[in-house]
Amino acid sequence: PASASAHATALRGAGLVTTQRDGQAVRHMLTDLGRAIVAANSSNAESAVLSPASDRNGRAQNGQSQNGQAR
C-alpha cells in the first residue's frame, strides 16, 4: 500500500492540495479546485443509490449480492 506521503504527492500533483511545513508537522490544505470537488461530491452523496454496506459496484461487502444470494 502507498504511504500517506505518496497520496499527498499525488493530490498535490493534481492541484487538489497544497502542503506547508510547520516544524516537524506537515499541513495539507485543499485548493479551490479541491474544495469544489469535495463540495460537488458531498451534494451528490445525498442522492447516492448505494447503501453504506455496498461497494461502488453495488456488491454487498459481506460476500452476498444485494438480493441475499451468494456471489
Give an overview of the whole structure.
By secondary structure, the chain is an alpha+beta fold. 34% of the residues lie in helices and 17% in strands. It contains 2 helices and 2 strands, in the order αββα. It has a two-stranded antiparallel sheet with strand order 1-2. The longest helix has 14 residues, at 32-45. The relative contact order is 0.09.
Write a brief structural summary:
Helix content is 34%, strand content 17%. The protein is of the alpha+beta class and 71 residues long. The model has no long low-confidence stretch (mean pLDDT 77).
Question: Secondary-structure map with pairings?
Answer:
Elements: H1 4-13, E1 17-22, E2 25-30, H2 32-45
Antiparallel strand pairs: 1-2
Q: Which class do the helix and strand fractions yield?
A: alpha+beta
Spatial strand sequence of the major β-sheet: 1-2
For the biggest sheet, the summary is: 2 strands, antiparallel
Averaging pLDDT over every residue, what do you get? 77
Distance between the first and last residues' Cα:
26 Å
What percentage of the residues does DSSP assign to strands (E)? 15-25%
What descriptive keywords fit this protein?
71 residues, single chain, 2 helices, alpha+beta, 17% strand, 34% helix, two-stranded antiparallel sheet
